[in-house]
Amino acid sequence: MTRPVVDRFVAGDALPEALVAVRALAAHGIDATLDHLGEDITEVAQAHRNRDAYLALLDALSREGLGGRAEVSVKLSAFGQGLPGGHDLALAGVRRVCEAAEAIGTTVTLDMEDHTTVDSTLAILAELRRDFPRTGVAVQAYLLRTEEDVRALAVKGSRVRLVKGAYKEPSSVAYQSRRDIDLAYVRCLRTLMAGDGYPMIGSHDPRLVEIAVRLAERYGRAPDSYEFQMLYGIRDAEQHRLAAEGRRVRAYVPYGADWYGYFMRRLAERPANLVFFLRSFTTR
Ligand code: FDA
Fold it and tell me: Which residues bind FAD (predicted)?
C-alpha cells in the first residue's frame, strides 16, 4: 500500500530503475547525483556490500555512457563510519569509490548526517581532496558551526552543497526556528557565492532559490560555476523551469531496497507528505 508513496521519492529498488530515472532527467537537461540507499549499518560486511554497490553503479554509468550526466552521493554511515574504527573503514571504502568515479570522469559528494559525524566527515573530505580535489560535501545551515566550516570550504575547486539540514538536532548545536535556519542559510550562501569554490544550492525553497540567483549575479558568477540541486520527486516543475532557463540543475536520485530512513526524513519535512502517505491506506 505504501509503494506508490515511496515511489514518489525513491527511483526504485534496483540499479536499472535508477538508470531509467537518470535518462529521464537528462532528457530535460537535468543531471543526477545517485544515492544507493543504506545507512545505520551494524557490521563491517555491510560496509563492504555498500561500497561494492557504488562500484557496480559507477561501472553501469560508464557502460551506459552516463558518466557525464551523473555523479554519486555517499552516506559515510553506510560505509561503516559509526562502527568501532569506523573513520578509517569509511575512508578506505569511499576512497575506492572516488578512484572508480575519477576513472569514469565523474565525482563523489559526501552527504552530511547527524552532528556527531561532522568532524569525521570533514576530516575524510580533506583526506580525499588531496587525491580527488573535486570531491564534494554537504553542509547543513541549521548547525551553529556551519558558517565557520563554510568559510574554510569556500576555496578553489571545492564543491559544497548547502542544505538546511534534515536531522533532529538539539538547540546546543543547531538553530531551531525556520527563520533562524533560513537566515543562516543565506549567510552561508553569501560566503559560498563570494568565494572561489563551486556552490551547490540544495534547497526547494523558492525564496532561497531566488536569493541564490541574485547572489550569483551580484558576484558575477558564470552559469557553469554553481548549480541548483533538488531531491528526486520534489518540485519537478521548478527543476524543469530552472534547467529551461539554462541553469545547471542536478536531482538527487535515491534508489535501493533500504529506503526507510530516507523516506521517513522526507515525510517529517512536510506535513502534507504525511497526509498523502496516510491517504494511501484509505484509498486503494
Ligand atoms: P523547506 O523544507 O523549507 O521546503 C521549501 C519547499 O520545498 C516546501 O514548501 C515544499 O514546497 C518543498 N518541499 C521541501 N521538502 C519537501 C518534501 N519532503 N516533500 C515535498 N515538498 C517538499 N540534508 C542533510 O541533513 N544532509 C544531506 O546530505 C542532505 N542532502 C540533500 C541533498 C539535496 C540535493 C537536497 C535538495 C536536500 C538535501 N538534504 C540533506 C535535505 C535538506 O537538509 C532539507 O531537509 C530538505 O531539502 C528540505 O529543505 P528545503 O531547503 O527544501 O526547504
Answer: 112, 140, 164-166, 203-204
Outline where DSSP puts E strands in 23-87.
Answer: 31-36, 70-74
Any idea where the domains of the chain sit in the sequence?
A: 3-279
pTM of the complete model? 0.95
Among the listed residues 161, 247, 248, 250, the single catalytic one is 161
Cell 517529517 locates to: 268
Question: What does DSSP assign to residue 174?
Answer: B
Task: Give the pLDDT of residue 99.
Answer: 98
Q: What residues are paired with 161 via a beta bridge?
A: 138, 200
What letter would DSSP give residue 67?
T
Grid coordinates belonging to 18: 535508477
Q: Find the length of the chain.
A: 284
For a ligand 1 pocket test, name from 181, 203, 264 the mutation site with the most ligand atoms within 8 angstroms of its C-beta: 203
Residues 6+ apart with CB under 8 A from 275: none
Fold of the 3-279 domain: TIM Barrel (3.20.20)
**189-247 tens-digit pLDDT:** 999 999 999 999 999 999 999 999 999 999 999 999 999 999 999 999 999 999 999 99
169 three-class SS: coil
ipTM: 0.96
Range list of β-strands (E), 195-262: 198-202, 227-231, 249-255
For the chain, list residues with pLDDT below 70: 1, 276-277, 279-284
